[in-house]
Amino acid sequence: MTMGTTTATAYSTWLFYYSPTCNFPSPRLAPRRITLRSRSRTSTCLSAKATSWQMESGILQKGIAEFYDESSGIWEDIWGDHMHHGFYEPDSSVSVSDHRAAQIRMIEEALRFAAVYEDPTKWPKTIVDVGCGIGGSSRYLARKFGAKSIGITLSPVQAARANALSAAQGLADKVSFQVADALNQPFPDGKFDLVWSMESGEHMPDKAKFVGELARVAAPGATIIIVTWCHRDLDPTEESLKPWEENLLKKICDSYYLPAWCSTADYVRLLESLSLQDIKSADWSPYVASFWPAVIRSALTWKGFTSLLRSGLKTIKGALAMPLMIEGYKKDLIKFAIITCRKPK
Ligand SMILES: C[S@@+](CC[C@H](N)C(=O)[O-])C[C@H]1O[C@@H](n2cnc3c(N)ncnc32)[C@H](O)[C@@H]1O
């Protein structure tokens, strides 16, 4: 697909003016056990207020599938097979070659946070990778634990590429990928020891159904790990986000095929409502601060720029929205959240 003049002008203006620097508040990594406020707050995504995406979830699904069909090749070309944030020590200066290591660190930190390592006899044997991209997490986890993993994605291009990469790496008997909807998973109840959702929750138009499906396919005693984009928790005095915050999120939603967002506290409340145990959450925003500036820097290279021009309008629109993510983090509106729990035995 060729790029129109307007898009080309917008892109070059953005390249010229954008300065990829980011200041974050001090880190708050430590896992915190949730204590519910007496007065519960429900964010817009859980209320009756639906976005146009939610009202037409078929259109949303089609948009997500096309977005990843179109953009996964360029991402893999430049960043490899993990389509998620890296985990960086705040204020460390990171060289581009460290980003893959940072993405692996994200997986390792998530496992550690959820205490998956503590007892090797309890390592997962069956894993579901919900919103699997091209299967980076599945292959890593399958190798690490000697487990079998099944990944689901809305993108046929991703599922095919994930299967091809796995076969090429001799993992075809351990991991497999298919096109399926996370909100209606094609698996029986209680099938998986580890339910893994790395940066797919933000695409889900019905968070209650999403969490319900994660809990349903989890085996008794299984660990559920959700790493996802949230908006900030609301204060007790607030009924909703501020108008400027809603506007910023809406622009991001339009570019990345996202429905309305919710807060980390909303996820915790959903997990509690399903009587899940050991619920923990943390704000890892300070640990991903280097990520978007690094993605932008990679888009500024000749290879990044030319690949982007060839990729298609959805990908270019996504690239143009990257500074909005940085703005959202900087203004304390966007939170990179981890939420984990265990299904009772
Ligand atoms: C940002 S990518 C993350 C990919 C992968 N987890 C990783 O870390 O490399 C988001 C993924 O969520 C998937 N996704 C979004 N909505 C979905 C849904 N309703 N059902 C299944 N997959 C979905 C997309 O197809 C895509 O593979």
From TrEMBL:
Annotated region (SAM motif I), positions in chain: 127-136
CDD domains: AdoMet_MTases
GO MF, any single term: S-adenosylmethionine-dependent methyltransferase activity
Keyword S-adenosyl-L-methionine part of the UniProt annotation: yes
Domain (Methyltransferase type): residue spans on this chain: 128-226
One Pfam family from the record: Methyltransf_11
Region span, SAM motif III: 217-226
Keywords, sorted A to Z: Methyltransferase, S-adenosyl-L-methionine, Transferase
Region ranges (SAM motif II): 190-198
An individual GO BP term: methylation
Keyword Metal-binding belongs to the record: no
Family: Belongs to the class I-like SAM-binding methyltransferase superfamily. gTMT family.
PANTHER family per UniProt: MAGNESIUM PROTOPORPHYRIN IX METHYLTRANSFERASE, CHLOROPLASTIC-RELATED (PTHR43591:SF81), METHYLTRANSFERASE (PTHR43591)
Name by which UniProt lists this protein: Gamma-tocopherol methyltransferase
The species this protein was found in: Senna tora
